Amino acid sequence: MSLYEKMNTASDNRDVEAWLDCIHDDFVFVRHQTGAEMSKDEWTPMVTAMMQSDQLEIKNQRCIYENEEILVTHSMMNFPDGTSEAVMVVNKLKDGKVIRVETGATPIESA
Q: Which long-range contacts link 30-39 to residues 24+ away (Cβ below 8 Å)?
């Protein structure tokens, strides 16, 4: 099973532990709004809350490209705060896990 498939299955099942298992210990998340960086420890509570919320909707998710170094995805997302975005995610990979994430997002009407 590819990393994309593992992460997508975990997301569909709202299995935070399985999803976090795909994340490298040295993980860095770069916020597209500010460029601020967050470590795995800093990022885990945010992603946990989002995944546990019934208000987070991920639609039309697809894998654009995946190899042993990079995973690029695109989806439409409705967030718990009521906002919606078209989100491009670039995941840099190391040792079969995501080590760095940078996103590009465009605000949209509810998807």
A: 30/100, 30/101, 30/102, 30/103, 32/102, 32/103, 32/104, 32/105
